[in-house]
Design a protein that fits this description.
34% of the residues lie in helices and 16% in strands. It has helices spanning 24-35, 64-71, 95-100, 134-140, 144-158, 161-168, 178-191, 197-200, 203-213, 223-236, 250-262, 290-298, 304-314, 352-363, 409-419, 457-462, 494-505; strands at residues 4-6, 13-20, 40-44, 56-57, 80-81, 109-110, 114-118, 126-129, 244-245, 266-269, 279-286, 321-329, 343-348, 373-376, 392-400, 427-433, 478-480.
């Protein structure tokens, strides 16, 4: 059985397969290669595994004066936070995780009574319940007519949710399920704003879809935003929906790491890789961002051809960014609409027009006057996240230009106050990780670019740069499998699986 260790890579690390990075993609690749009998070593720069999918005490995420200031008063004591991702709709639907069988590995995914809510000032929220049907959506979308319009668009995708997910999470080079492709194409034709989104959905449906599409952090009128929105909306109708893991995001990667160790892999934390000269393996899998891989290649005395490829990777366009805000509350959020007390995810930022304007401002490199805000209430599905005295974490992020160093705490509080008057009275502590500092928790998030590069139509199928095999680098035995490669960002493990299968076929 392998072991975990904290070390410094002085002599070259030797193995059959070396995986750089221990997020879901890295652990998926390591697990599949180890189960096939390869000698695998995983190298992780942070002191804990998980990459963008971790759960830790706030004390473990801070250093120096920042740590002393934030932890003063003991408000964070006994609480854990998810420094990056918190809600994982793809984990419940991806082929890799379904075959891995999370429940068999001790991971419980819970779907809240209200999967998703879009809160609006001065009126009832738009809500999507667990296991939505056209009938149950009638109240959530305001009227039977709105629900019928939504179901007309999403029903064909909902009936093929696993096939749609398989198409979205493919390597973008194989033939996806024909039925899912046809359903997606038909939905896209009706949902894309330039093709008549106003005719396909009612006002509430447009607002709901706009909030979902905004997860791409790209202008909403772009084809990429529509595609992302349709896939994520489909997952609302999948068996698990937008589920949260009990214990936090780290439960997912903790289970993967344990399985990889049992399969014979070795995991070393606290190891930073700066050059290929530090590695000795037949196959090396980098789960870094495109720019991160470019920097390593350029530091490795590359051949002229490899240097050209590295510089192309280094020029991969950066997308919009996220600024993370963690709050400690003394009790529940005082939502104006009481149904939101059961919501796992809440979108804030106004109606479809307001969200579209905000995302356009971010894409243009400006801070939105009223930014899109995503909120998660992990205690809704996991009461163990609540301390004995009632304190609980609230997870949020706002969309900002890449490399923004602005503290967005007040923007989050202002957005919450509009739909939960008095919320400031229950906030006992707050900490913002500006976009410019997101890489401190995960090097792939340099500048706050949590999508691993710009999400646009070309980038959906040709990320990070156009090439026949999106995971090959041009260097024999050197592979790239991260959110910067197909199928893109998200906790799904599929980039790691796609690369592992290529390694094992060879």
């Amino acid at each position: 059985m392998g072991t975990t260790a904290t070390t410094t890579a002085a002599a070259p690390v030797r193995a059959d397969v070396i995986v750089v990075g221990s997020g879901p993609n890295g652990l998926a690749a390591a697990l599949e290669c180890a189960r096939a009998g390869r000698r695998v070593v995983v190298l992780e720069e942070q002191d804990s595994v998980g990459g963008g999918c971790r759960t830790l005490p706030m004390a473990d995420l801070l250093t120096g004066r920042d740590r002393e200031h934030v932890l003063a008063g003991g408000h964070w004591d006994g609480l854990v936070v998810d420094p990056c991702a918190a809600v994982h709709p793809m984990a419940g639907a991806s082929e890799f995780f379904r075959e891995f069988d999370l429940p068999a590995h001790g991971v419980e995914m819970r779907t809240p009574q209200v999967q998703l809510a879009h809160a609006l000032p001065g009126r009832d929220a738009i809500v999507v319940p667990r296991a939505p049907t056209e009938q149950s959506l009638a109240s959530g979308l305001g009227s039977p007519a709105e629900a019928a319009a939504w179901w007309s668009l999403m029903g064909p995708l909902a009936r093929r949710s696993y096939e749609v997910t398989a198409a979205a999470l493919s390597d973008q080079r194989s033939v996806p399920p024909v039925g899912a492709t046809a359903a997606l194409a038909a939905a896209f034709a009706h949902a894309h704003p330039r093709a008549g989104l106003g005719d396909a959905l009612g006002p509430d449906g447009r607002t709901l879809m706009s909030g979902i599409s905004a997860h791409a952090i790209t202008p909403l009128r772009s084809p990429a935003a529509t595609a992302v929105g349709l896939v994520l909306a489909t997952l609302l109708h999948s068996p698990l929906g937008w589920a949260l893991p009990v214990g936090g995001s780290g439960a997912l990667t903790g289970a993967l790491a344990d399985a990889a160790l049992r399969a014979g892999a070795e995991i070393r934390t606290g190891v930073r890789v700066d050059s290929l000269r530090e590695l000795d393996a037949r196959d090396v899998v980098f789960t870094t961002s495109s720019r991160g891989l470019a920097a390593i290649l350029l530091a490795s005395s590359p051949s002229p051809a490899t240097e050209r490829r590295a510089r192309r990777l280094g020029r991969a366009p950066v997308g919009g960014a996220a600024s993370k805000v963690d709050l400690v509350l003394s009790g529940p959020v005082p939502w104006s609409d009481p149904r939101l007390a059961e919501a796992g995810t809440v979108h804030l930022g106004g109606d479809a027009r307001a969200i579209g304007h905000a995302e356009h401002q971010v894409a243009a490199g400006r801070h939105a006057d009223r930014p899109m805000v995503l909120v998660s209430q992990p205690a809704v599905t996991d009461p163990a996240r609540i301390a004995a005295d009632g304190r609980r974490p609230l997870w949020a992020y706002t969309h900002v230009p890449a490399y923004s160093d602005r503290d967005q705490t007040q923007q989050v509080l202002e957005a919450l106050e509009q739909v939960a008057p008095g919320v400031r009275d229950v906030v006992v502590a707050a900490h913002c990780t500006p976009a410019a500092r997101m890489a401190e928790h995960n090097a792939n998030y340099a500048g706050g670019d949590i999508a691993g590069g710009r999400v646009d139509l070309r980038g959906l199928v040709a990320r990070p740069v156009p090439r026949l095999d999106p995971f090959a680098t041009g260097v024999p035995g050197l592979w790239h499998a991260s959110g910067s490669t197909p199928p893109g960002p998200g906790v799904h493990g599929m980039a790691g699986r796609h690369v592992a299968r290529r390694i094992l076929r060879a």
